[in-house]
Amino acid sequence: MKKTLIIDCDGVLYPVADLPTQNIIDAVKDIYRNEVKISGEEQAKISAKTIKENHLGIFNYIREICNYSNYDFGKFCRQLAEKIDYSNIKEDKKLWNKFQQVLPYAEIVIFTNNSREHVDMVTRQLFHKSSEETEKSGVRIYDITATQVGGYFYPKQAPQAFSMFLAKIGANAENCILYDDAPRNLAMARQAGIKGVLINQDNTLLQNLQVLISSLPKIQHTRD
C-alpha cells in the first residue's frame, strides 16, 4: 500500500523566514479593525469566547469575528491573501521535481491550518502553479475548511483533528508520515498513530524527500 505524505504548508514548503507568522497575524488584525470594523472591546469579547469554548487556531477566531459581525468568511480569507506580501517566497524547482519523483509511489497531501486562498498564493510563488494546477498534478490540498465540523474548525493542534482528517482522506495512520514544523502538531499526530518528522532549517522537507527517494529502488534518479 502506498504511503501518504502529509505535508504542512508554512515553514515546511518554504522557510518560515520568507513569510513570518507575525505578518499573517498583522494582516488579520488590519482586516478586522479596518474592514470588519469591530472595536477593541468587541474583539476582546470574541477572543474570550473562542478561548472559553476551546476553539483552537486563528481561523476559528476569524470565523467567530465573521459570525459576530455578519461578515462573509470567504471574503475575509480573500482579503487576507491580498494583504499578505508573498514576494519573499522563492521558486523551488527542486522541491517540485522531488514531488514528481515521489508521486508514483506515495500520495502527497498538503494539509494546512490556513486558507485555500493562502495555499494558492504559496504554490504560485513556489511552483508557478495555482492550487488547482497543483492538484491536477496529483498533489492533494486540504485547507482549514476541510476540518469543519458543527460550524467550527479542528486545526492540527486539536486533540481529535488527525483522526478526523484521516477519516476524511481515507487513509490509515500506519501508512502516513506527517512533515510539520510545529512540535505540538507532531505530538497530536503521534497520538493518532501517525509518524511525524520535525522540519526546520537543519532538516528540510527537500532533504527528507531525497532520503525517501533513495529508499525506493524503482525510482529512476535524475539530476536536480
Write the layout of secondary structure elements.
Elements: E1 3-7, H1 21-34, H2 40-52, H3 58-69, H4 73-83, H5 93-102, E2 106-111, H6 116-127, H7 131-136, E3 139-142, H8 161-169, E4 176-180, H9 183-191, E5 195-198, H10 205-214
Parallel strand pairs: 1-2, 1-4, 2-3, 4-5
What about the largest sheet?
Answer: 5 strands, parallel
The quaternary structure here is single chain
- Give the beta-strand count: 5
Helix vs. strand class: alpha/beta
The rough form would be described as globular
Helix amount:
40-55%
**Rg from Cα:** 18 Å
The overall pLDDT average reads 94
Widest sheet, order of strands: 3-2-1-4-5
Written description of the protein model:
With 224 residues, the chain is of the alpha/beta class. Helices cover 47% and strands 11% of the residues. The protein has ten helices and five strands. The chain has helices at residues 21-34, 40-52, 58-69, 73-83, 93-102, 116-127, 131-136, 161-169, 183-191, 205-214, and strands spanning 3-7, 106-111, 139-142, 176-180, 195-198. The protein has a five-stranded parallel β-sheet with strand order 3-2-1-4-5. Strand 4, helix 9 (183-191) and strand 5 (195-198) form a beta-alpha-beta unit. Helix 5 runs parallel beside helix 10 (205-214). The radius of gyration is 18 Å and the shape is globular. The relative contact order is 0.17. Residues 219-223 have low confidence and may be disordered.
